[in-house]
């Protein structure tokens, strides 16, 4: 067995209650790393073509990162993989917290479930023994209660738990999986797969040693990384961020973004640092992708300026092995939940400006409600905005909504709608499976208001402001995701400092260059996809690597932890192989990559007549084709070409 990884996985067949270990050859780790790379390798190999995502043949895997537990920083993320019931494609989601090292301390790189249990169960690993236990009494409980009960009933030192809430149990296709009091691996609807398998939770206690090739070198690299994380000069006040956003919007030139600036903001406020800045500069989609900064200006967005979130922060929250701590535990005036996780930017915008809701306390409340239910806050905000637009246009009536007056900015109606979705009550039953299915169900031309990519609701980053987001929403094998690439991310990764041949971004460039679809953009987009596969294979946090690869040394950590001697360019080929394997999974399952193109409204078809993104349309067809070609996939269809598959050594 090599270093850095454990060399084996645990397999569980929930239909037969059989549990066994499987050894994974070293060459698989060298070719695909661990994390979502190992997950994709398992799914491609074992999920038969056409398998029902909610059926027994689908596989649900919880995978640790290759660097997790080796002494490297920012590398405590766990991945969940499976065929997505929301998109029918390869699906994954990842989350921080403390679950990733727990998988390895139980002696495994991943735990993979197939089959369907007859009754609710949970998997417990303790004292080196894995067993399925009855979860009937936990069924119906929310994620926070479930975790608390499982921890309190454990004889071992605090075990680590992932679980679903009522949304996953009710097979809501926008359900996620939670750990650490409601932190969510939210996307791709994998909570519904867990619910369909009747698997309530996974509870891990282990003490296995993680072998590291050169621990001193890993630590030396971590100390150097720490210098950058610690550097924290004073920064502007929260409300000032709105004016920085407005200035960015008005300038005719674009300044290349350096991750250190983002790091300073992240350390000061967390992701809520982006709330007003993004809304002002045109990065945040508003009012169901139909609004702009002119509808949700500085005065309205002032209610969610970053300071109001940190004002109620009791203590900072750090994921495992993170020196930065962008999270926070907060206390608000709301007496129902005394302590909650600080909402993320994505949540604040999707339940705020996206629904024209200005009430900060309601965002805290809905965030906690959704985290406890185990439902994706981004998707929930999208479905709510979709329903509001249908109501405002007279397509949905008060009878349809169960008496709710679903108008823009009606906070109480929004909360009530979210509650209906969680419990699949009335209109909530239709909405709980995402915007695509809701529009199919309601009909009457509502598909124009249902904004998604292949069924997955998009995140709170507007491709009309940064076309890179539109590209990655449309081309990633798990579509609609904001955590892979964009012009902004490419600038912050600074990959050209490590990988020869990648274009360097100039410090300042004319803004129109950002919107031009050309081959250079395809090269940059493909580089982001490849790199993020390495990052997700290592179990690293996107926010960490956005500080820049010359400051957060992912490639060097990988070599020091494993003893491999790969160049950054060779790691990028590993990332390319993982991307092509994920795309091959989709082709195997009958997906047509073209169908993942995002909805017209989010592309600026027709263009907006006001605001930050006025007059802009994304040339997505050309961008997708150039990207596919850059990866060695068919330019017209997006299918990986035979030569590419052979070159990458995919079996
Ligand atoms: S930066 Fe934030 S999300 Fe990333 S590992 Fe640290 S605390 Fe977790």
Describe this structure in words.
39% of the residues lie in helices and 13% in strands. The protein is an alpha+beta fold and 651 residues long. The strands form five sheets. It has a six-stranded mixed sheet with strand order 2-1-6-3-4-5. A six-stranded mixed sheet has the order 8-7-12-9-10-11. A hairpin with a 4-residue loop joins strand 1 (8-13) and strand 2. Helix 8 (240-250) runs parallel beside helix 10, helix 20 (487-493) packs across helix 21 and helix 21 crosses helix 24. The structure holds iron/sulfur cluster. Iron/sulfur cluster is lined by residues 74, 96, 318-319, 322, 324-327, 541, 543-544.
How do the strands and helices of this protein lay out in sequence?
Layout: E1 8-13, E2 18-23, H1 26-32, H2 35-46, E3 60-63, E4 78-83, E5 90-95, H3 99-105, E6 110-114, E7 121-126, E8 129-134, H4 143-152, E9 160-163, H5 166-169, E10 177-179, E11 183-185, H6 190-196, E12 199-204, H7 215-230, H8 240-250, E13 253-255, H9 259-269, H10 275-281, H11 298-301, H12 306-310, E14 313-317, E15 327-330, E16 340-341, H13 345-351, H14 360-373, H15 377-392, H16 411-423, H17 427-431, H18 435-442, E17 452-453, E18 456-457, H19 467-475, H20 487-493, E19 508-510, H21 519-538, H22 542-545, H23 554-562, H24 568-588, H25 600-603, H26 620-630, H27 642-647
Parallel strand pairs: 1-6, 7-12
Antiparallel strand pairs: 1-2, 3-4, 3-6, 4-5, 7-8, 9-10, 9-12, 10-11, 13-19, 14-15, 15-16, 17-18
Helix pairs in contact: 2-21, 2-24, 7-23, 8-10, 13-15, 14-16, 19-26, 20-21, 21-24, 21-26
The site of iron/sulfur cluster has 12 residues, from helix 22.
């Amino acid at each position: 067995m090599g270093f850095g990884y454990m060399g084996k996985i645990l397999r569980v067949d929930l239909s037969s209650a059989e549990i066994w270990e499987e050894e994974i050859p070293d060459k698989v780790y060298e070719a695909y790393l661990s994390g979502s790379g190992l997950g994709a390798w398992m799914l491609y190999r074992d999920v038969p073509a056409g398998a029902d995502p909610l059926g027994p043949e689908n596989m649900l895997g919880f995978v640790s990162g290759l660097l997790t537990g080796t002494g490297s920083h920012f590398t405590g993320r766990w991945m969940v993989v499976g065929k997505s019931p929301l998109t029918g494609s390869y699906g994954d989601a990842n989350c921080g917290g403390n679950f990733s090292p727990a998988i390895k301390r139980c002696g495994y790189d991943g735990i993979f479930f197939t089959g369907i249990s007859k009754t609710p169960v949970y998997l417990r690993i303790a004292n080196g023994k894995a067993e399925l236990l009855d979860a009937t009494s936990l069924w119906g409980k929310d994620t926070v209660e479930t975790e608390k009960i499982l921890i309190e009933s454990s004889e071992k030192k605090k075990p680590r738990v992932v679980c679903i809430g009522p949304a996953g149990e009710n097979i809501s296709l926008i359900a996620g999986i939670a750990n650490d009091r409601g932190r969510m691996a939210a996307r791709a609807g994998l909570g519904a797969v867990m619910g369909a398998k009747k698997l309530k939770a996974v509870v891990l206690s282990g003490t296995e040693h993680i072998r590291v090739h050169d621990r001193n070198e890993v630590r030396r690299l971590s100390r150097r990384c720490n210098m950058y994380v610690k550097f924290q000069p004073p920064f502007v006040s929260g409300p000032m961020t709105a004016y920085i956003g407005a200035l960015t919007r008005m300038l005719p030139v674009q300044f290349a973004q350096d991750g250190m600036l983002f790091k300073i903001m992240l350390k000061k406020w967390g992701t809520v640092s982006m709330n007003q800045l993004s809304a002002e500069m045109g990065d945040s989609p508003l009012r169901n992708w139909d609004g702009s900064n002119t509808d949700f200006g500085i005065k309205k967005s002032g209610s969610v300026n970053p300071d109001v979130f940190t004002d109620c922060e009791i203590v900072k929250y750090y994921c495992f092995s993170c020196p930065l701590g962008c999270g926070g535990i907060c206390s608000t005036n709301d007496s129902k939940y005394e302590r909650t996780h600080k909402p993320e930017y994505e949540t604040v915008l999707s339940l705020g400006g996206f629904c024209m809701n200005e009430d900060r306390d309601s965002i805290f409340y809905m965030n906690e409600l959704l985290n406890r239910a185990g439902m994706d806050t981004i998707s929930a905000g999208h479905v709510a905005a979709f329903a509001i637009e249908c109501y405002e246009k007279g397509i949905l009536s008060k009878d349809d909504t169960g008496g709710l007056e679903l108008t823009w900015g009606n906070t109480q109606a929004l909360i009530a709608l979210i509650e209906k979705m969680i419990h699949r009550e009335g209109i909530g039953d239709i909405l709980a499976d995402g915007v695509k299915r809701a529009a199919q169900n309601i009909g009457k031309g509502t598909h124009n208001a249902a904004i998604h990519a292949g069924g997955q609701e998009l995140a709170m980053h507007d491709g009309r402001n940064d076309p890179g987001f539109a590209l990655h929403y449309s081309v990633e094998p798990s579509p609609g995701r904001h955590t892979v690439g964009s012009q902004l991310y490419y600038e912050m990764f600074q990959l050209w400092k490590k990988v020869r041949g990648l274009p360097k971004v100039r410090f300042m460039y004319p803004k129109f260059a950002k919107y031009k679809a050309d081959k250079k953009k395809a090269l940059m987009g493909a580089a982001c996809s490849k790199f993020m596969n390495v990052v997700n294979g290592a179990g690293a946090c996107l926010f960490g690597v956005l500080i820049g690869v010359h400051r957060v040394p992912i490639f060097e950590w990988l070599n020091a932890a494993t003893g491999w001697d790969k160049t950054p360019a060779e790691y990028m080929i590993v990332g390319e192989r993982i991307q092509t394997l994920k795309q091959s999974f989709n082709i195997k399952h009958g997906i047509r990559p073209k169908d993942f193109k995002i909805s017209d409204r989010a592309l600026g078809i027709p263009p907006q007549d006001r605001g930050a993104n006025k007059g802009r349309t994304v040339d997505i067809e050309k961008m997708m084709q150039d990207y596919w070609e850059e990866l060695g996939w068919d330019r017209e269809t997006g299918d990986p070409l035979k030569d590419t598959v052979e070159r990458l050594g995919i079996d």
